[in-house]
Amino acid sequence: MSPTGSGPRTLGRMRTQRQIVDYSLRRRSLLRELDSGRVGSHEVCDASPYLKSAAKFHGEPTEDRCPVCRRENLTHVHYIYGDELKQSAGQARRKAELPVLAMTFSEFQVYVVEVCRGCGWNHLVEQYLLGRDGIEAPAEAADAVGASAPTRAGGRGRHRHLSGGGE
């Protein structure tokens, strides 16, 4: 179960996702600039034909309306990058493929782009790392806690485990 009790956890996605960067503040700022006229819609509605095609064939539909044209729902496209991916680097992948890739490769970067297939609005939503390197084996976790250095107060240091609690 997930920490919120809402259902089963996806091992590959939940336990290995790390170093998350959210671009929602930049998005809001850009939309304010668009509303004020400092930025034109031609500057923000510039999705390439490749990006629109990736949204059509590999994208994940959302319930969110396009903030520019307000006619169509946005689509999220997940791009993967990493040295270990070789020729697969830079490809758009379905979200359902990411947990399998995370168990296959040690580390790769995921970029999530929102796209309006109607007007061409596109913006980076978030980026994060996935991969096996984010999984800590139970024996390694016990060793890390037991081998922690003493703190200034003379006790053992406390470790935060980023691989998701509650297991």
Automatic annotation (TrEMBL):
Residues 155-167 have a biased composition (Basic residues). Pfam families: DUF5318. It comes from the Bacteria. This is DUF5318 domain-containing protein. Residues 146-167 are annotated as: Disordered.
